[in-house]
Design goal:
The strands form five sheets. The chain has a four-stranded antiparallel β-sheet. It has a two-stranded antiparallel sheet with strand order 1-2. The radius of gyration is 37 Å and the shape is elongated. The protein is built from five helices and twelve strands. It is of the alpha+beta class and about 300 residues long. The protein folds into two domains: about 80 residues, no CATH class; about 200 residues, no CATH class. Helix 1 runs antiparallel to helix 5, helix 2 runs antiparallel to helix 3 and helix 3 packs across helix 4. It comes from Danaus chrysippus. Keywords: Membrane, Transmembrane, Transmembrane helix. This is (African queen) hypothetical protein.
Length: about 300
């Protein structure tokens, strides 16, 4: 028996029902993109945390104490020291360049402290510390890097130009190479301070006081040391101290460079993932057979 649709039907057999279009199964659940979002945020946080805390540049983690006025601790540094063989500098009243000594050892922790602290005199104090270490390293006496701390002494650095003057207290061991001393006075004793020690703490002399001072060629840095009735004075070009401080540079890429770049990369990856999965879901939702299958016919007779 042939039905109205032209298909052969057999007695006692129901006509085949129309076959609906077959869809692909196993479409991706909606929570998949949430997982990718969380993963992207996690990667961004870990990347930023690695940049902020730095790599293997820390040197000490324990706190100790020596027999002096200085408490001993250590600090994790985010700067690296790249000293040249010598520093060539010409002061504003000089006609030729002069060479200045450079410290080629591992800088003590207090140098990193000054460099990282920021503040108005950060560059000048970093440069003064490195300049003093360089001067001490060129002396021929064995104990030039030792300094006898005196409780009554007070030291400071005064920045002077033709417009104004500013002054900041400094630890006196930063001026050790500028002081007149005999070889006998350099022999270490229990109270002597090794200025190359990586454990000197200068926290009482760290000042977070505004933006860094802009150094010009006209400025002079006057180093003062007051001991009871005596007052010693040494004058150094501030631009020279600035040159010394520039030998210590950040170890990684600055935050204002890597942070926007990282955010842009994460956003681009997120958008690309969104587009990719939308196309894939749309493709998987299309049927294998575009038309509607009514049934099938057969020429076999029962």
């Amino acid at each position: 028996m042939v039905g109205a649709s032209g298909w052969r039907q057999h007695p006692g057999v129901k006509p085949p029902s129309p076959v609906r279009p077959q869809l692909r199964v196993g479409t991706r659940p909606r929570c998949t993109m949430k997982i990718y979002n969380i993963a992207a945020i996690f990667i961004l946080i870990e990347y930023g945390n690695a940049k902020i805390h730095g790599g293997p540049r820390g040197r000490f983690d324990k706190h100790t104490q020596v027999k002096s006025n200085h408490h001993v601790s250590a600090h994790h540094a985010h700067y690296s020291y790249h000293p040249p063989r010598e520093i060539y500098f010409m002061c504003r009243h000089c006609s030729n360049f002069a060479t200045f000594p450079v410290y080629h050892g591992l800088p003590p922790t207090y140098v990193y402290r000054y460099r990282e602290a920021g503040g108005r005199f950060s560059d000048l104090l970093t440069g003064l510390a490195l300049y003093n270490l360089g001067r001490a390293s060129t002396d021929h006496w064995q104990y030039t890097h030792y300094y006898k701390v005196r409780p009554e002494e007070k030291c400071s650095m005064q920045v002077i130009d033709h417009k104004h003057s500013e002054e900041v207290p400094v630890p006196c061991f930063l001026l050790s190479s500028f002081m007149e001393r005999s070889p006998e006075s350099l022999i270490p004793d229990p109270d002597a301070l090794d200025i190359t020690s990586p454990q000197i703490d200068i926290r009482p002399f760290i000042y977070h006081n505004g933006t860094t001072l802009k150094v010009t060629w006209e400025q002079e840095c006057v180093l003062w040391r007051n001991v009871t009735l005596n007052r010693e004075k040494n004058v150094v070009p501030c631009a020279l101290l600035k040159t010394y401080s520039e030998t210590m540079k950040p170890s990684g890429i600055p935050v204002y460079v890597w942070l926007p770049s990282t955010i842009a990369i994460v956003i681009a990856i997120y958008v690309a993932c969104q587009c990719f999965f939308r196309r894939k879901i749309k493709k998987e939702s299309q049927p294998f057979n575009q038309g509607v299958v009514i049934g099938y016919c057969t020429n076999q007779h029962y």
